[in-house]
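Table S2 (text version). Query chain:
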Amino acid sequence: MPIAARFHDARDQVLAGVDKAFAEPVRLSFLKKGVVDPARPPVDIEAVLRVGGGNETNIAGGWAASWRTQLAAGKAELHINAANYAGPAIRTGDRVKALSRKAEPWFNVERVDDRGEARLVLELSET
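Corresponding structure-token output:
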């Protein structure tokens, strides 16, 4: 007899609250060998996009304290509520466009983590 988890309702409420506060419109564009995949048309969704805030290193590539100039790695993550996503499978090489941000920047999908229970997490890099 399967045992039902008791935290699903609370988890779903937390996800909805986070999405209500932090989600923004993005466009998922699906590519195949670098060109638009006609079998997977683009979709617009709302998801939590976080850009920057990762590790910084100095220009020399080490951690020397005497360097004052540091570069951000240009990494980002997109967190999609898996229960609400009904679009095509997302693959490495697809692209994400931040529709509500200045200049509507594009990001490349570098990795898809679909093993989480509640979120699809896309590791992105800036184009």
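Notes on Table S2: The helical segments are 8-22. The CA atoms of residues 39 and 101 lie 28 Å apart.
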